[in-house]
Design goal:
Layout lengths: L1 H15 L9 H33 L7 E5 L9 E5 L2 E5 L6 E7 L4 E7 L2 E6 L3 E6 L6 E6 L3 H7 L9 E3 L6 E5 L3 E6 L4 E7 L7 E8 L2 E5 L12 E5 L2 E2 L21 E2 L4
Parallel strand pairs: 12-17
Antiparallel strand pairs: 1-4, 2-3, 3-4, 5-6, 6-7, 7-8, 9-10, 10-11, 11-12, 13-14, 14-15, 15-16
Length: 267
């Protein structure tokens, strides 16, 4: 009786307690799936974001607001140049077909100076640019001339005439003539090589220039009573032409030539 009762109680106790559960293998199986899903979503998000990032990169405005537009390729090097509307335009001098145009946002070209391999332009904000003349694919350099924009804005449309002057037949040096000074830039890289200030009480006149024997003659009016010799200045790629001057060595670095920048000429 006691044994039976004890056995039954033991059996009843066993039935009343919940049986221990075997740990399920399901969670470990779901965990890798969740990680894979997260990785997949991250890859999809990156793929969707890539075109947006690329578009943002391509939409960045070019330095100085330049916009170069290619049209028909030039059949020969150094096509003709002109200003049309708000653009510098390279075109076929025979048929008039456009090759490329160069515009700048909010600015307009006032003068253009062609040279072998170069398309120099003067803009309304006083900036001087050098564009690859044959292809129009790049602007080699930009140079801002102090005070030039105000002087251009104060005059009429013809004020920019004569401001850009090549200083040698190959146009290795470009002069920018303003009333206060003549500044010469090496065309290969836009490096400023020399500056010639006007005499006190005088001003250079870019519209009154002449060439003789490899020299550029620039008028420098000084008012009543000034001798005519003081009102005419001769310059070339080395600076002001005066007796016994020291050559400026305007060759680029690496050409086995000493280079230095100076205020040009003995006064």
């Amino acid at each position: 009786m006691t044994a039976s009762t004890s056995t039954a109680a033991a059996a009843g106790g066993t039935r009343g307690r919940p049986e221990p559960r075997t740990p399920s293998a399901e969670p470990p199986a779901r965990a890798p799936r969740r990680r894979a899903r997260r990785i997949g979503l991250a890859l999809v998000a990156a793929a969707l974001a890539l075109p947006l990032a690329t578009a943002a990169h391509q939409a960045r405005s070019a330095p100085y607001g330049d916009r170069l537009t290619a049209h028909a390729p030039a059949a020969r090097p150094d096509p003709a140049l002109r200003i049309r509307g708000g653009a510098v335009e390279a075109y076929d001098g025979a048929g008039g077909r456009r090759h490329w145009t160069h515009t700048r946002a909010g600015r307009r070209p006032l003068a253009v100076r062609p040279a072998p391999g170069h398309a120099f332009a003067l803009w309304s904000d006083g900036l001087v640019t050098d564009t690859a003349r044959t292809t129009g694919r790049t602007v080699h350099w930009h140079r801002a001339v102090p005070g030039l924009s105000r002087w251009l804005a104060a005059g009429g449309p013809g004020r920019a005439a004569g401001v850009l002057q090549a200083l040698d037949p190959a146009a290795r040096m470009l002069a920018v003539v303003t009333p206060q000074r003549i500044a010469a830039y090496r065309t290969r890289d836009g490096d400023l090589r020399w500056v010639l200030p006007a005499e006190p009480g005088c001003a250079f006149d870019a519209r009154r220039t002449a060439r003789t024997g490899g020299a550029l003659l620039v008028a420098q009016p000084c008012g009543a009573g000034a001798p005519w010799t003081a009102e005419l200045v001769a310059v070339d790629d080395l600076g002001r032409i005066v007796p016994d001057r020291t050559p400026l060595r305007n060759a680029p670095p690496g050409d086995n030539a000493r280079t230095r920048k100076v205020v040009a000429g003995d006064r």
